[in-house]
Amino acid sequence: MTAVTIFAVLDLLGTFVFGLSGAMVAIRRQLDLFGIMVLATATGVVGGTIRDILLGDTPPAVLQNLVPLAVTCAAGLCGFFFFSLIDRLNRPVMLLDAVGLGVFAVAGCQKALVFGLELPGAVLLGMISAVGGGVVRDVMAAEVPRVLHEEVYALAALAGALTYGLGLRAGLPGTYAASGAILLAFVLRVASVRFGWRLPRAPGGPR
Amino acid sequence: MTAVTIFAVLDLLGTFVFGLSGAMVAIRRQLDLFGIMVLATATGVVGGTIRDILLGDTPPAVLQNLVPLAVTCAAGLCGFFFFSLIDRLNRPVMLLDAVGLGVFAVAGCQKALVFGLELPGAVLLGMISAVGGGVVRDVMAAEVPRVLHEEVYALAALAGALTYGLGLRAGLPGTYAASGAILLAFVLRVASVRFGWRLPRAPGGPR
Amino acid sequence: MTAVTIFAVLDLLGTFVFGLSGAMVAIRRQLDLFGIMVLATATGVVGGTIRDILLGDTPPAVLQNLVPLAVTCAAGLCGFFFFSLIDRLNRPVMLLDAVGLGVFAVAGCQKALVFGLELPGAVLLGMISAVGGGVVRDVMAAEVPRVLHEEVYALAALAGALTYGLGLRAGLPGTYAASGAILLAFVLRVASVRFGWRLPRAPGGPR
């Protein structure tokens, strides 16, 4: 029960932080208050909505439960009123975002397994859940999605989902597998930003 | 029966006008005839299709009924042949578009209630139905969706859907609730354009 | 049985070539290895995934079967290591892409008919299946989708799906209808590139 509560709190924390990242992009694009709320909400809930559509679990949670929506609107308001503060707090936001990434990857993988997907499909869906919101945020801001050109981001989500799935298969209790997986995704993501890890580009491509 | 007919006519009118707005964007982007038809169709029917996917009502109406498709293709042809005329008629197109906005918001909310969603989710889905087509139009044209930075647009749709839902809950006959809601969305949208209403931007954001 | 095998091989060939086109766009955009894999996969499998979502056949095939994913990752790696070679081989890639276009159009139409759609909806879904991946590829690369402004592309897919559907209705065996339809889409597409066929632009539009 406590583990479920912790997980639910982390899930809302992830939704909030993703919403905040949407709000910051919206404000940099000089959108108005409503545009900020829309982009915060899209970033916070679209990953889970894509997950639910792909699993056929419709209507998706966001239409049935006001809490995620309230959380992303709160994130939008925080961005609206405290833009310059949050802008300077870049580092803490990145850390929270890395937590959200791991939580969403694990939550997506877990739900996919419950719906009967095999491990590879469930891991893939975990990654899609974790990065989907950010892709929609960037596409709506008419930018190439950050996930396509940023250091280890989707890869951290993939590693988290895979670790969770393999942990379950190895017989670990769900709480342990989830904690380890979230921690791994978090560490991978933060280390990649800290040390500037980059994946190689195509050897023959344009420079 | 008459109310149903009026509603169906308004729905097709909304599809047509949304399709026309897609065609105008396509022509400004110098797309060819086929690109014009595709963008007209996407703008006219994607909102309803997203609604149907989110409600799990698949295949969506557009794949089962040729009428919406015929209407958006007619809109595409109108744009193709009468571009400069329609371009000068900016005002009437905006008025019709405001009707479509209200009709789609109400239709989305209504269908969501029929499918068992609670009021908040149904209102949200009504808004998504109303603005979804325009978002896809702008994303395909590689622009920041107008709904994110234009004056009261999604907000008018939201107000319409909410009025409809609250009207029903207050015991109004569906026709009355729908008419009032469409009228409110229309007036809000037109007044916002006429008086240049704008929502505030973030106080600390870039200028 | 042999026809099914041929079709499955063509389907994987189409997935591979579409994946390759995604990888080439990613490399031109200077994305890293992971971005290349993601764009290759999105381009190769999203068309079929949209088809499955619209038909309500969830979870979609790509989450249940590793083969398409393996194929798009192989396409991504080919793009990564042989970018400049493939870049010079423009013509063969275009030819293979035209095969993929026809195969996907027919496969989408066929599945839609199996799921009980009428002919017009099935033809439309076939076209969507064939061009959907490319649209997502271009939107993620922040470009106006090529299908909107390129010579006869979606039209070739439409012609292929329509030919297949009409062939079945006329009582042709499925293999014959499919072969003829794929051939027609292929010839239309290749001829349009070879002879520079273009559809007209709006007479009153900007130049």
Automatic annotation (TrEMBL), chains A, B, C:
It is a multi-pass membrane protein. It is found in: Cell membrane. Pfam families: Gly_transporter. Its main location: membrane. InterPro entries: Gly_transporter (IPR005115). GO terms for cellular component: plasma membrane. Residues 9-82, 95-164 form the Glycine transporter domain. Keywords: Cell membrane, Membrane, Transmembrane, Transmembrane helix. It comes from the Bacteria. The keyword Cell membrane applies. The chain crosses the membrane at residues 6-27, 34-54, 66-86, 119-140, 176-197. Belongs to the UPF0126 family. This is Membrane protein.
